[in-house]
Amino acid sequence: MTTSVWNGAGRRIELCDVGLRDGLQMEAQFVPTEDKIALVNALSHAGLSKIEVTSFTSPTAIPALRDAEVVMREIERRPGVTYTALVPNARGAERAIESRTDELNLVMSVSETHNLANLRMTRAQSFAALAQVITMAQAAQVPVNVSLSCVFGCPMEGDVALDAVWEHVQRFADLGVAGITLCDTTGMAFPTQVGQVVAAARARWPGMAFTLHFHNTRGMGLANVLAAIDVGAQRFDASLGGLGGCPYAPGATGNVCTEEVVHALQLMGYDTGIDLPALIATAARLPALIGHEVPSQIVKAGCRLDLHPVPAGFDAIRERALAR
Amino acid sequence: MTTSVWNGAGRRIELCDVGLRDGLQMEAQFVPTEDKIALVNALSHAGLSKIEVTSFTSPTAIPALRDAEVVMREIERRPGVTYTALVPNARGAERAIESRTDELNLVMSVSETHNLANLRMTRAQSFAALAQVITMAQAAQVPVNVSLSCVFGCPMEGDVALDAVWEHVQRFADLGVAGITLCDTTGMAFPTQVGQVVAAARARWPGMAFTLHFHNTRGMGLANVLAAIDVGAQRFDASLGGLGGCPYAPGATGNVCTEEVVHALQLMGYDTGIDLPALIATAARLPALIGHEVPSQIVKAGCRLDLHPVPAGFDAIRERALAR
């Protein structure tokens, strides 16, 4: 069999679970702090290489994550796992660094309209504020990842010029960030585009650790992951249970679902380093914690070889058939 | 840009919508006959090349489709569209032929357990019965397609030996059927397997019109479609609105969703011949007819460039930002 994207051939793919941040931040029901800690610990034991634990935003802005410090301080630190957190500004960076966060994940949008609507700043203002945070992080020797929103399209502007994406990648590369996440914030990415963008980014910044962050809003999440792998991508964000909807598409699926991605990639021969049954068992805890079902198809349907019993009366059906 | 599966380059993909059969057959709410006819007509106008209109099964077994004759007789016949129907036995074939069905779609499983559980016959008995139906169809000059269930796995047996698949393909090919649909009945197929099976089938029976029928039960539907296209597949079943669940996975998604597949393939540069807005408008009628939401992400989220307004107060947000 020739090696292609369809045959993982043991190649390693790294996943960062963002469910506790990108997912829980929009849940109405507060998940108790000890349950958040237990979820992070379970993800660590399941073999995730990176976990976005929380967000150091204002507790009044996102009350669902008002326990950021406690969660970050009390989780088990498993060797080899990176415990990252979203940090919106200098105040958040102070809190994150004090709480021993392994990596700060900064965020801004490459769409001016989306950045203004979400962060109430122009892109230039966001960049200046994040540059200050990067200086703080570097002084504290904490690595920085920057997540760029709307790389594959803005829900208000439409397609975003790639020049705006590359300009921001270059400016953050110049500041020495360790990684950049190219985010499909509202599920507008499609495989052809993904291949072009990821191939171009990797060619232009061969030393940069790029991560891809896809939403499954229009059913293309896994296809986009595969299109990115086909041009060499190795790191992806995904969300436990598929948590994390989209304010622009009520009822639509959110982030690509970690256990769906792991289930598919393992079947295809990729090495994710993840204990799938342990991951699924962790995702299965979510509905009780958040008060509703999760989008995960794997939580509902199980793995492909989770077999079902024959129907009641099967022996009699067979006997009658054979007697004809 | 090199041609690959990620770049359709205008290649044609034919879709058969199976929502009215595979979808409606398991709905509790009876869809009025005139609404079924209107749905088929809308699909014809949207550009589907094949539509599975109904099933000529016993009205007591599947009351949701008890109006098969009326629907098949009263739909508009658009030139170039094939109006097919599922036919389980000789009685169904008589009814279908009398109702001027363009093609009979016969079904049996390549898994002995699944065939017994679903059809209450051994595979040998099913084959003998279908051979008789094929003779009837040939006498009436009506083409036959055979849908083989569980090609990619059986929910009770697990993996099905490919020899059993090939044996059935060969036996039906020997009887002169026009096409064979390889069905992933319960969403067990994964892309690596799909590529291997489809490539092998096409190599061995180059003259056979193979169709692929995938379910999205475990989130791999679109990826499986792309894996099949990558080895030359050109025909797929899909279901309007993503209708059609799976009795083995309550709550899980059913067939791959026609408008999701068309949306993705068109973005990727494939030619489906389908008017996507007309297709989406047709899918949007379903919730009112069946009494619940449909799985379709496109019905919920719209197309990728269906833009959203800026939030209320956006001008003031911008003014405040620029004044800093």
From TrEMBL, chains A, B:
* Keywords for this protein: Lyase, Metal-binding, Pyruvate, Transferase
Looking at the Swiss-Prot or TrEMBL record, what is one Pfam family this protein matches?
A: HMGL-like
InterPro entries given in the database record: AIPM/Hcit_synth_CS, Aldolase_TIM, HMGL, PYR_CT
Pyruvate carboxyltransferase domain: which residues?
Answer: 13-280
Q: Which domain of life is it from?
A: Bacteria
A single GO molecular function, which one? acyltransferase activity, acyl groups converted into alkyl on transfer
Q: Which residues form a coiled coil?
A: none
Gene Ontology terms describing biological process: ketone body biosynthetic process; L-leucine catabolic process
> Which PANTHER family does the UniProt entry name for this protein?
HYDROXYMETHYLGLUTARYL-COA LYASE
The protein's matches in NCBIfam families, at most eight in alphabetical order, are given as: PRK05692.1
Task: Family membership, please give it.
Answer: Belongs to the alpha-IPM synthase/homocitrate synthase family.
Q: What is this protein called?
A: Pyruvate carboxyltransferase
Query: Which organism does this sequence originate in?
Result: Acidovorax ebreus (strain TPSY)
